[in-house]
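Appendix C: a fully annotated inverse folding record. The material below is reproduced so that readers can follow the format used throughout the book. The structure is listed first as tokens, followed by the designed sequence.
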């Protein structure tokens, strides 16, 4: 949902948050969507910045490895998971 005010466009900020470590392929039930506030879409004056809207989310094989519960013998650091 977008709203305009003072020539500045704002949209709601949505995040896809992992509930648990993933076993196998991620499922929708492993995640939840959080809406927390709004973001300004105004690009700062004098910059060549671009605002991009993400329409789809995907996980490549490397990311799937990072979503698994950490192995204490692994040399790669795990990503943090927000348990709900």
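Designed amino acids, in order:
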């Amino acid at each position: 949902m977008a709203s305009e005010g003072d020539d500045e466009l704002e949209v709601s900020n949505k995040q896809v948050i992992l509930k648990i470590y993933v076993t196998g392929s991620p499922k929708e039930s492993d995640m939840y969507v959080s809406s927390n506030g709004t973001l300004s879409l105004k690009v700062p004056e004098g910059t060549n910045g671009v605002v991009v809207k993400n329409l789809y989310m995907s996980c490549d094989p490397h990311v799937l490895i990072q979503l698994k519960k950490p192995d204490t013998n692994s040399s790669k650091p795990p990503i943090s998971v927000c348990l709900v």
